[in-house]
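Teaching assistant here, posting this on the class forum so everyone can see the example we discussed in section. The complex has two components, and the goal was to see what a joint structure prediction looks like when all of them are supplied at once.
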Amino acid sequence: AQSVAQPEDQVNVAEGNPLTVKCTYSVSGNPYLFWYVQYPNRGLQFLLKYITGDNLVKGSYGFEAEFNKSQTSFHLKKPSALVSDSALYFCAVRDNQGGKLIFGQGTELSVKP
Amino acid sequence: EPEVTQTPSHQVTQMGQEVILRCVPISNHLYFYWYRQILGQKVEFLVSFYNNEISEKSEIFDDQFSVERPDGSNFTLKIRSTKLEDSAMYFCASSERGFGNEKLFFGSGTQLSVL
């Protein structure tokens, strides 16, 4: 069965510092990996996705993610965090059979001034 | 950017009552989904829907749940007899295709509270 795991419930970063939100995956076949963000009282918003090819994927709001096949990871990164980046971040894998997204547990990112 | 819209944003109901959650997917999308998120927990898949029938459903989606696309634009989730444990945020999502690298578009959710 396909799955993703986010090992950290919470990540705390000072504004201006780089941030990393971790995700590891387990899939059969080619992985289609996604990051979504959820701001308070809002739905999930797409940030970026990995298809094939370039291991470094750039997305919305200055975020990027690095696909690492040997480590089965897809960590979300940003060079310089903003307070407004504070939100809940979900890693997800697309099910190759039925098309549904399978989400990780989510990581609460807190960026302090 | 096009949006998935959900109504109502909040729904309070008594245990045992029926509720219908409504969604308007993006107009040219063909695949529709319901997810839910119990407070503090992960987002869980409930059901996917394509070509007027259920494509896949999870263990959560038991006989108390049903989905319908009554008029070509709305996509509804009905819970026939609500239980306390149905209290959650319910998200509707849609996509143009049902596989591959295509992203899902999510609505803002309906917060269902069962008392």
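For the discussion questions: Chain B is about 0% helix and 50% strand. The CA atoms of residues 24 and 74 of chain B lie 5 Å apart. Think about how each of these relates to the inputs above.
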